[in-house]
Amino acid sequence: MPKRSTDAPGRRRSARAVAAIAGAVAAALALAGCSVAANGDDDDRPVVLTTFTVLQDIAQEVAGEHLRVESITKVGAEIHGYEPTPGDLRRAADADLILDNGLNLEAWFAQFVEGLDVPHVVVSEGVEVMSITEDAYAGLPNPHAWMSPLNVQVYAANMADAFAELDPDNAEAYAANAAAYSDELRAVHDELVAELATLPEAERALVTCEGAFSYLARDAGLTERYIWAVNAEQQATPQQIAGAIEFVRDNDVPAVFCESTVSDKPMQQVVEATDAAFGGTLYVDSLSEPGGPVPTYLELLRHDADTIVQALTGSAG
Ligand SMILES: [Zn+2]
Question: Which CDD domains match (predicted)?
């Protein structure tokens, strides 16, 4: 799949395209005189749209059976520089609530919702934000706050509040679901920290393509090193690759990783130039298909921790 660049000219093109699509959708809706049922079936529950699959799973946990929760982007999509389709805009116009991560994760979102008369809520509101420390993005918030399960306790509480406003009759159920999920999140956090704590001090370096693991690395006491800060880049410069190679050599890093939504080619260059092995694919910006390795957010966290520990200790064989 071709990767999208979000350099300035690209952003302008993308913004124009979204504006053109929004105009076409508005015209179509005006011609139709009304909106059609969101999904053309008998399901009359309110529809909540999330920007990506990880949020969809978390939101569904909080919603229980009372709301229909769907993701705008599909499994495996690159979400930072995503370009919405006319179909996405039609779905959004028919939704009852839209949830986005915020923290500049969805570069396309402000333009996307500009012409829509649908409420939207930023689910990361209130988390303790970490800043990006390198690259052109230095000083901006690191958007991947969900990689700490304790932050997702905040996400779940925000969702419960938003759902209570949307559907007050089930407000108690949303609060109870969020509380129960919060307990699970705490348990998974404790499990991850304990598992990653088994790594020897000298093997606590986590080298990835994207700088998406800052929150997990902080929780688990790992040193994080990445090729690029945010996946919107996706074109590693020779300097970025050289920097990763130098770090891997200097620290005798046994294994390096890349994420499911980007090409691992740049990291394979690091593998070829050093003694490090390719440790496997980590999931951050998307779940897998239902039959894949990470069909839920909690499984995503466990999969990543298992993959990291096995590769850095060589216990995968
Ligand atoms: Zn990302």
Answer: PsaA
